[in-house]
Amino acid sequence: MRKVVLGLLGLVMLAAVWLMASRWGINYSLHHRGWSSVDEEADDEMREVTQLPVLWLGESYDADGDGTGELELSAFDIRGSNARDPRGVEHNVPQYEMYLGYGRCKFPPVEGGCALPLSVVFDPPCDFIGDPPRIPDVRGVEARDAGDSIYLLTRDYQIRIWPPRAGAGYVESALRVAEALRGANDLARGVTPGSGLPRRPDAFC
Predict the structure, then answer these.
(1) Per-residue confidence at 27, pLDDT binned at 50, 70, 90?
(2) Cβ(78)–Cβ(94) under 8 Å?
(3) CA-to-CA distance for 23 and 17, rounded, in angstroms?
(4) Strand-strand pairing, 141-145 and 95-102
(5) For residue 31, what pLDDT is reported?
(6) Rounded CA separation 78/59 (Å)
(7) What is the value of pTM for the model shown?
(8) Where would I find the beta strands (DSSP E) of 103-163?
(9) pLDDT above 70 (res 6)
(10) Residue 99 CB contacts under 8 Å (≥ 6 apart), including other chains
(11) pLDDT at position 37 over 50
């Protein structure tokens, strides 16, 4: 009898988990390395990703343009989700998100982490971002000014770039980052620095 009761409880729990997954979505991490643990194997892991095209700036990024490549890759995370977006649209296939961080915290991390000098976030292509002002296209795709960062609206992602330079000049700094993005795996093999990014069709979202 006890086994029967435990079995029924297990079925109820599985049903509850399935309901949550179908209604609110479940986030799951595909690849993750914290800001203190990225090493020489990070690029190998990116090359092995088969679910989505992976873009990056290489093992380091030259923020000052002096050839020193002083900001090293220090964090990356790739996640999938079947959750609804903020407008209530339910996705039937996984929506992938990716984060790249370069450099180190200038101050000891506080609770919740710290902002790295350079962050690039890749959100699902139809996530709602409001209506930030449009700026000239970048690498053949629509670009928007978010006030402290820029968006690139591609077919595969909405790419948001928080550049190394804050305040005045952040747009130019972010544009330099955007031009440096290149492919890291087979699905993004054709993406080289400055090459065109996949443009989303009209009425895509």
Answers:
(1) very low
(2) no
(3) 10
(4) unpaired
(5) 47
(6) 17
(7) 0.74
(8) 118-123, 134-138, 141-145, 150-153, 158-162
(9) no
(10) 75, 76, 77, 78, 119, 120, 121, 122
(11) no
